[in-house]
Design a protein that fits this description.
The chain has about 150 residues and is an alpha+beta fold. It has one domain (about 30-140). The chain is about 30% helix and about 35% strand. It has 3 helices and 4 strands, in the order ααββββα. It has a 4-stranded antiparallel beta sheet with strand order 1-2-3-4.
C-alpha cells in the first residue's frame, strides 16, 4: 500500500511538472462535446454562421482538443411530422477558439462543403488541415481517420 501511495505521488508530480510530454505540446486528449452543451452549440453555430444557414446538423464527427476542433456533419431539415430529412449538404470544418475583445469564441479556420464548394476540392482542404497539423498547431487526435 505504501509503495502504491509513493507511485501515485510520483505520477502526479511528473504530470504537474510536465515530464513524459514533449515540450510545448498539449497532453490533453480530444473530447466530443455532448449534445445540448454550450460548447457544442457554439461550435455548430460557428459553422452555421460561416455557411449563412440556420438549419441543424447530423454530426458524424466532432472532436475538441484545447483551442482546436474538427467537425464533419450533414445538414438536416424538418421533413414534417417530427421527422428530419437529410439534405445533400456535407460539411467538414477545422475550427479554432480565439479571444477577440476579451471574449472567447469559435471561428472556422478551414471549411469544405459538398456540393456547394466548387472552389476548394476536398483533397486541397485535407492537405491544408494536415499541413497545420504537421506544423504542430493542430492536435492529430481531433482529426477523423479518413482525412
Amino acid at each position: 500500500m505504501r509503495n502504491l501511495s509513493r507511485s501515485l505521488i510520483v505520477i502526479m508530480l511528473c504530470s504537474l511538472l510536465g515530464f513524459g510530454a514533449v515540450k510545448g505540446q498539449d497532453v490533453s486528449r480530444a473530447t466530443t462535446p455532448a449534445q445540448g452543451t454550450a460548447e457544442r452549440k457554439a461550435l455548430l453555430d460557428a459553422v452555421r454562421a460561416r455557411l449563412k444557414i440556420k438549419s441543424q446538423f447530423r454530426v458524424y464527427h466532432l472532436k475538441v482538443n484545447g483551442e482546436w476542433a474538427f467537425f464533419h456533419g450533414g445538414e438536416v431539415v424538418d421533413g414534417g411530422d417530427g421527422e428530419v430529412q437529410e439534405t445533400d449538404l456535407d460539411v467538414q470544418a477545422l475550427l479554432q477558439r480565439k479571444t477577440v475583445a476579451g471574449k472567447a469564441a469559435w471561428y472556422v479556420a478551414e471549411i469544405w462543403t459538398l456540393p456547394t464548394d466548387d472552389k476548394l476540392a476536398r483533397a486541397e482542404f485535407a492537405r491544408r488541415v494536415r499541413q497545420r497539423q504537421q506544423a504542430g498547431r493542430v492536435p492529430a487526435d481531433i482529426l477523423p481517420d479518413d482525412l
